[in-house]
Amino acid sequence: MASQTTTFIYFDGQFWIGLVERLDDGRYSAARHIFGPEPTNAQLLIWAADGFAALRFSAGKNVGELVPPEVTNPKRLKRLAARQSRRTETSRAEDAIKTDLALRKASRQQAAASQLAQEDRFRLRRQKAKDRQRGR
Do 64 and 26 form a contact (C-beta atoms < 8 A)? Predict the structure, then answer.
């Protein structure tokens, strides 16, 4: 029952973005927060304390058990951390966020279609009522 959370903060050319990856009991999920202008250290601390609760993580994806790293050499750990900090988004995070966005888009489209159908039924009832009033 291991848990791991990794946060990346990077500049995508227009905005500063925080990407949070969560691996919890073999389920991978990701969330993204757009900061806008470059956040200060104080803003990052406030976001870390309060902003995590507001994040909408993607639906969890099974990736298997979390394997703890066997690396213990501090110099190697420092190199790995530097390598990961140079990395922007991971493909797994992109996939998780894209699937979550696709699911939300599909639900919005379904809601819009049902709203249109409801409006059509209402118009039809009004037209029938007018026709009955006019004696047609």
Answer: yes
